[in-house]
Amino acid sequence: MEFVIKNRRFKLVDGVIMSRTIATGGKETKKESWKAISFFRHNKGYEQCELSIDGQRRKLLKHRMLHLAHNPSWDILDCSQNNCIDHINRTRSDNSVDNLRVVTHQQNQFNRSNTKGYYWAKNRSKWRAQLVINGRTKHLGYYKDKEDARAAYLEGKEIYHKFDNGLTSQEREEIDEYNSSF
User: Fold this and answer.
1) Of 165, 163, 166, which is closest to residue 176 (Cα–Cα)?
2) How many CB atoms lie under 10 A from the CB of residue 61?
3) Lowest CB count within 10 Å: 4, 36, 166, 180, which one?
4) 161 contact partners, CB below 8 Å, separation of at least 6
């Protein structure tokens, strides 16, 4: 399966992303030769490579390239808040097509597993449960027990951290239409 990013051709062969060989000057060689792209794990756990595209060095994440390979109309170079790729199961090394989806930046934050959602409020001598929606803190209550604060946070996530919160109906339609296209 071949795909293109600006002036570079790539193909996916048995889970390996390959690139056409580039000669000096940034043009493809006349010989139809392909080379496997080397990825390295960067400090946040994602696999990344560095390639020359249109004469500029660019860092590309493997999961974004794999998503593009299966969805050629998607714009990999659009790094806006509404064009994130989420690992559904939260495993950054699982780049299977079924585990990747287009989400907003906020929706991507909803899928985090390392958030506690509560803290000890010294001034009240109780546990405070809270979550963040559209950059604003949503207070969920004060609790005597840590477990109750955690339960309130998890219940709040079910109510407020839906994948359509904060989107206009047009944005929701675009994302739904896009996700249903594959």
Assistant:
1) 163
2) 19
3) 180
4) 110, 131, 133
* 125 backbone φψ class: left, alpha, beta (φ>0; ψ -120 to 50): left
88 and 114 fall within a common domain: no
Tokens for 50?
């560095």
| Pair 131, 76 in one domain | no
SS3 13: strand
Q: Say if residues 56 and 65 touch (Cβ distance below 8 Å).
A: no
* pLDDT tens digit sequence for 6-29: 888 999 999 899 998 877 766 777
* Whole-angstrom distance, CA of residue 162 vs CA of residue 150: 18
Say whether both 11 and 58 belong to one domain: yes
19 DSSP β-pair partners: 10, 35
